[in-house]
Amino acid sequence: MSRITLSNLAHSYLANPKGDDDFALKEMDHVWDDGGAYALLGASGCGKTTLLNIISGLVRPSQGRVLFGDRDVTDAATTERNIAQVFQFPVVYDTMTVRENLAFPLRNRGMDAGYIAKRVNQIAQMIGMEDILSKKARGLTADAKQKISLGRGMVREDVNAILFDEPLTVIDPHMKWELRTQLKSLHREFGHTMIYVTHDQTEALTFADKVVVMHEGRVVQMGTPEELFETPAHTFVGYFIGSPGMNLLDAEISGSEARLQGVSVELGAVYGPTSGRTQIGIRPEYVTVSDEGLPVTVKRVEDVGRHRIVRAELGGQPLNAILPEGMAVPGDNARVAFAPAKINVYANDWRVAPSDIGRGA
Amino acid sequence: MDKTQNNKAWFLVLPVLLLVAFSAVLPLMTVVNYAFNDTFGQNEFFWEGLGWFEDMVSSERLHDALGRQILFSGIILAIQVPLGIFIALNMPKKGFWSSLVLILMALPLLIPFNVVGTIWQIFGRVDIGLLGHTLAAMGVDYNYTNDALDAWITLVVMDVWHWTSLVALLCYAGLQSIPQAYYQAAKIDQATRWSIFRYIELPKMKGVLLIAVLLRFMDSFMIYTEPFVLTGGGPGNSTTFLSIDLAKMATGQFDLGPAAAFSLMYFCVILLISWVFYTVMTNLDREENR
Predict the structure, then answer these.
(1) What is the CATH number of the domain that holds B175?
(2) Which of A204, A277, B17, B201 would staple A39 via disulfide (CB 3.0–4.6 Å)?
(3) Considering only CB atoms, which chain A residues are within 8 Å of B288?
(4) ipTM entry
């Protein structure tokens, strides 16, 4: 087990990348602490799997170094890195039994037979497959196969890290929850570094201590679920996390006031002058529908059970608000108010920190 | 459950049945007719019963040909199947080179059988053939027209040249169907090259390998044109395989009765062995699924 450092790393699948657009992964510096549970979150095609394959050595980065602890492993083959990885679709060795499948990584490392038997039983118990250990893997269902893959990923105790590449895609929803909880408890028990790739925010937020959000080949934010929710560093994080995502409204900022097409909104902090496209971001959870405030046109109201989502327009820009249960549905002349401390300011998609440190987030 | 039974759709098969009857069944019946009768022409037939069959079963000549045939098919399979797998494993998987190799591999398969025979007949000649002449110049005593062993080697090499591509291409198709994730997982699990072959590649190739073995067995067991052109069954009778012997008997000596009985048994033997092959291999498959 060791800390994983990505230094100056970038990757392109082309032989001679020219512009920034040719890179699947843009240059990044990054440290994954030993024993951390990370989730790598992002839309499809944003470079999550590429990053994972670089760490496991299946892909060699075009530039930069990968370090395990203090050892440079950039040029080390996958087999030398001692990493476990679970793929999106189940990979089992068809002709082997479940037991042989689980024992395979241990046997390849020449472990002692008694230890293998003990360890395989332990893992089988974790994934709930003790009864079918002697069955051939071929005839099993997709989720049983994926459980074997997960088991094979966890069977080695001395791995540097366990990487999961959207491992629960093929699993039934109720099993998903169960397996995720199990992974989490395994993490607590053994303390392996775990990196979990997903495009499902619930999965990421429930699994990880730290969530890494990627967008177009770049890591845009790394933080706790709370940080991602309260202070998204990039508009993508704001809109990707949360349901519905953060409201983003074009505005002009002067001091602690934002002007939105003639109306002014109070901010929770003082900001210096901004350049480029300036927006304010406010989560629907912090938008209150009331009798006072900014006038909006309500387009429709969606009832999602536990609360209602008001889809409205503010001066031509879409705005969502969450209406707690029991509140009256607003009429045509609805008005909304923003919680000043929860407003973030963005210039060219990146968050602008308030100029008076100590207030705001 | 009360399902309505309606088998009228069978009538739709009738036209094909008629076609097949004219193209295959009726000619076959003529052979059957010859096998049980004796004739001196003029459409006059004398009942022979199982006489021709008894003659053929106890015929020394047929036993020898059958022995040669089994030996030939055995050698062919023992070389072509492993060699085909080996080639498939080492073929480039994508890009320009893969297309080029595929075309080159397919070439021998496109050459007509008698042309293949002619190519090797000339290629192996000691006076003008590149192979024969070179071997002679190197001091190797090689002459496929005189020496039975040389004739066999030439025949086997020719068949390997002609047909290994088929096995290789089938295996290649099987290999291409393996998702990349399997190889990646094997790397993660620190599997050796042999384990990858044994546990990932071989199981995925099994289906196509079964077809390859069946096709190569049937084809090599029925081989006629190439040895006929290359050696004509000689020297002596050393490369007279079943088909060549049959043709000699039927069109050479005009022994139509024995030849007809012989060809019926020949047909049954191929059918039987193919069936056994198929059953054994699919049963192995089922056993593994358990």
Answers:
(1) 1.10.3720.10
(2) A204
(3) 95, 136, 138
(4) 0.75
